[in-house]
Design brief:
- The complex is a heterodimer of chains A (271) and B (259).
- Chain A is mainly alpha-helical.
- Chain A has one domain.
- Chain A is 48% helix and 8% strand.
- Chain A contains nine helices and eight strands.
- The termini of chain A are far apart.
- The C terminus of chain B is likely disordered.
- The chains are: A mainly alpha (271), B alpha+beta (259).
């Protein structure tokens, strides 16, 4: 039997008390995993469908608008819809341009500490909920491949910031109405809200909080980092809210642009 | 008169079962009050550990309706109608009834190298509030070990106890790692010796903490991020190369032996 060698030898193992049941919880602990599975599955199905559509992702000058779906921005291939290109062109990519870029936001969310908590519980049942038995006989957590790769979250954070800059640029461009001048439409508001939520999601991220102050042992020696850390820490507590809000809204933004681009909706001018 | 029915697990290492007790319900009682009334009336041999009855000593940890909780801080009238189930903490070996052997925790505590400050300067040590305030949150811990109990890494996988310190002691390492006067580099130690990688941040430790410490967000993830600094961040790696800084190994990091 295994032991822990300290000043007193502790023998591990031994009979445990209580009944041999997966859980004794009587509340509806399963609601949260069910909700997580439902929302994330719906998002994955929709985003996969949208990524393979390769059309209706841009509303251009022909209707005096400049709106691009966040799933397709930046549009990098040589067969992007005219006006939607980011400038840099990747020649010879035969598939949807969305497939080139979605890996980065997907990786950022997949390795996000909040989402990890959610899908480990909801999809992997490790554990399904607190004080509910793990569904697996053995467990090595994030100590081995592939889950040790979760540590690349910070790499995706760096890429995520680049995408946020790009989507902010798109939101600013949405104020421009080719042939009409500057103005605000429903589409402009949608893109601005989308970019704002994505910034909030990134800035409240644990990796960001660490990089801008949390990693310091002596915050008193870094006043600027200390102020940022103090600013972002209360917001970090709302990271879950921003994670869900930005996830749902990015899909809604794609829906809106898609409906306008396909002629189902008109992008009304507000002022 | 209203009644309260309580199913208490009675037994020891050789086995046990639930026994049901029904008593008159008193206004404002907590679960520990009812357990004490059971002891006073029907089962004087019922074993339970308790001390302060104020949520500060961390002695009366148990599982109430399957949730790890302090018996002295769980009001009976806030629980759903029906029998209340009280069982011992599941993660630790049973001694008797509601009392478990929590020696594992003391052994883990002992393994953590103590604070290693630099030599005392002539003017004495000086620290600033912003440097110590993060650690102050962790000092609220009352060592009830509910976080250790709920952590599925050891709750459902006994074999991990050899390699994994549990949230309470990873939080202790985080506290020391953030301490402005500690000169130990505990990142390797947390990763290699105390099993930080086993934590999959399901936040159950935070959910059950009676002191409301944000164990996962403020300690465990912060510690994981520091390990990322040392191992997985390409920008930090480049910075170390340029500034010619080196990482310490686990052996070098734990320079101060445990007492």
């Amino acid at each position: 039997m295994a032991t822990l060698e300290t000043s007193t030898k502790v023998v591990l193992g031994g009979a445990r008390g209580g009944p041999d049941a997966p859980t004794l919880r009587t509340d509806r602990w399963w609601i949260q995993p069910v909700a997580t599975v439902s929302i994330l599955t719906a998002f994955v199905i929709y985003s996969t469908w949208a990524a393979f559509q390769n059309k209706n992702y841009y509303v251009g000058a022909n209707v005096h608008r400049d709106l691009i779906s966040p799933f397709y921005s930046p549009c990098l291939t040589d067969h992007c819809v005219p006006g939607s290109s980011a400038g840099f062109i990747l020649h010879g990519w035969p598939l949807s341009p969305a497939l080139l870029i979605l890996i980065f936001p997907l990786g950022f969310r997949l390795s996000c500490y909040y989402y990890r908590r959610s899908y480990y519980r909801a999809f992997w049942w490790s554990p399904p909920s607190c004080a509910v038995a793990d569904a697996h006989p053995t467990y090595s957590g994030e100590t081995r491949f592939p889950l040790i790769m979760q540590n690349v979250h910070r790499w995706f954070f760096y890429f995520g910031v680049l995408f946020n800059i790009m989507l902010t640029y798109d939101a600013v461009r949405a104020f421009q109405q080719p042939g009409l001048g500057w103005g605000v439409t429903v589409g402009t508001v949608v893109l601005v809200v989308n970019a704002t939520l994505l910034w909030m999601y990134s800035l409240t991220c644990h990796a960001c909080r660490h990089l801008f102050g949390g990693g310091s042992r002596r915050l008193s020696a870094h006043k600027l980092r200390a102020r940022f850390w103090q600013f972002v820490s209360p917001l970090n507590a709302k990271h879950m809210n921003f994670a869900w809000a930005s996830l749902i809204f990015v899909a809604l933004t794609d829906v809106y642009v898609r409906l306008v681009a396909s002629g189902v909706l008109t992008d009304y001018k507000l002022f | 008169m209203a009644e309260v029915t309580m199913r208490v697990w009675r037994g020891d290492a050789s086995g046990g079962d639930f026994e049901t007790y029904t008593l008159p319900k008193n206004e404002g009682e907590v679960v520990l009050d009812v357990v004490h009334r059971i002891q006073a009336t029907e089962a004087p041999d019922l074993a339970c550990r308790w001390n302060c009855k104020a949520g500060k000593c961390g002695s009366c940890s148990a599982e109430i309706n399957g949730k790890p909780s302090l018996m002295c801080m769980t009001r009976v009238d806030e629980l759903p109608e029906g029998p209340i189930t009280v069982t011992p903490m599941k993660t630790f070996p049973i001694i008797r009834d509601l009392v478990t052997d929590v020696s594992f925790n003391f052994a883990m505590a002992e393994k953590i190298p103590a604070l290693l400050p630099p030599p005392m300067p002539a003017e004495g040590y000086r620290m600033f509030q912003e440097d110590v305030q993060r650690g102050q949150e962790f000092r609220k811990c009352i060592e009830c070990f509910l976080c250790q109990d709920v952590c599925h890494v050891i709750r459902d996988h006994e074999d991990n106890k050899e390699h994994y310190a549990g949230p309470r002691f990873l939080m202790r390492i985080a506290e020391l790692e953030m301490h402005p006067l500690d000169t130990n580099d505990r990142r390797e130690y947390a990763r290699e010796e105390m099993g930080l990688g086993f934590c999959n941040i399901t936040k159950c430790c935070t959910e059950v903490c009676p002191e409301g410490i944000h164990i996962t967000d403020n300690a465990l993830i912060a510690l994981k991020e520091r390990v990322v600094d040392a191992h997985y961040d390409p920008v930090a790696w480049l910075g170390r190369k340029i500034l010619r800084r080196t990482k310490r190994t686990a052996a070098e990091a734990a320079v101060q032996p445990a007492p």
